[in-house]
């Protein structure tokens, strides 16, 4: 018989009751070091007192009023995001897919309003992940995810990630935008080179098309800067954010330059929940933590510490690990083809460490941004044991 909870996920048989910082406890009392953060979402860890208090206080006052009225918490959060980013204006929604969906609408609207409705194709990349709605599935372009869901939404074209020749070849009179993740998260924690991001910006300027960044996974401090594109010294025209911005409370956002945002007038786009007082109280609390002096510097420091430890881990386990990739606290251990990342994930669980598998046979690490160097060391110790569990027996014999 089908479970009451629809079986859309392959869930591990673990249920958590309580969390504190980077640690989670199951209902049966086991403790895990959480280097997955609920897929890069519990950005400031579990049970962060400031976030808990902000949510509790707002919940007691008023949670939801709808966008029929002004929402001071949303006005404040938007103003702070504008102040700390390239953007002039922000739209709030509830998830990453929804932010991307709105962003795709925004780039099409921009060209339509500028007299070019034929410019409605978004160039996307192989290995991308943009969400599970019909439009974002088409933007994702993964045959496995599209299968069975009818004709993919038109208006998307895919080229190899990192290949500037292919991008320029794909640009024509129908191109509206280039949509790219600064680091492909689900696709295998693959960073775009900073030069590739700069070249995309230049091509967009050259051809009058929009640069749309999907920073759903890479944003809100995950890379060691507030937004990952800041490492490249470029600015997008429009950007999506979600996951980490609510610290675990569902919140998504479209950040846009005025030239794009100006066309999203009343009646063009909307959301019932989007940017409600409770979600924005959570967003403001996360921002308080991430923007506190020294916070991002510490993320960068602990990330570099973890990176060095992972390089060392790779050296100790040449039969298991092919390489290490990623940036900031979004890191991937690329495994040898004979070692399956799902099995490696289970081996880590057996050692008390939570990670997330990603594409390209990568074991993804996305710990809460608040981890200490000691917690990074603890994760490395647990990974060392997990990698030993994954070592093929012939390699174990050779190492003796
Ligand atoms: C997770 C993710 C999404 C989808 O976000 P949802 O909140 O699951 O809809 C989109 N883009 C990227 C880069 C993501 O990592």
From TrEMBL:
InterPro entries associated with the record: AcOrn/SuccOrn_fam, Aminotrans_3, Aminotrans_3_PPA_site, Class-III_PLP-dep_AT, PyrdxlP-dep_Trfase, PyrdxlP-dep_Trfase_major, PyrdxlP-dep_Trfase_small
Main location: cytoplasm
Note: May also have succinyldiaminopimelate aminotransferase activity, thus carrying out the corresponding step in lysine biosynthesis.
Gene3D superfamilies: Aspartate Aminotransferase, domain 1, Type I PLP-dependent aspartate aminotransferase-like (Major domain)
Recorded metabolic or biological pathway in which this protein acts: Amino-acid biosynthesis; L-arginine biosynthesis; N(2)-acetyl-L-ornithine from L-glutamate: step 4/4
Residues with N6-(pyridoxal phosphate)lysine modification: 243
Annotated source species: Roseicella aerolata
HAMAP family tied to this protein: ArgD_aminotrans_3 (MF_01107)
Entry's localization field: Cytoplasm
UniProt binding sites for N(2)-acetyl-L-ornithine: 132, 271
EC number: 2.6.1.11
GO terms for biological process, alphabetical: L-arginine biosynthetic process
Cofactor, how bound (note): Binds 1 pyridoxal phosphate per subunit.
Gene Ontology molecular function: identical protein binding; N2-acetyl-L-ornithine:2-oxoglutarate 5-aminotransferase activity; pyridoxal phosphate binding
Name of the protein in its database record: Acetylornithine aminotransferase
Quaternary data: Homodimer.
GO CC annotation: cytoplasm
Recorded name of the encoding gene: argD
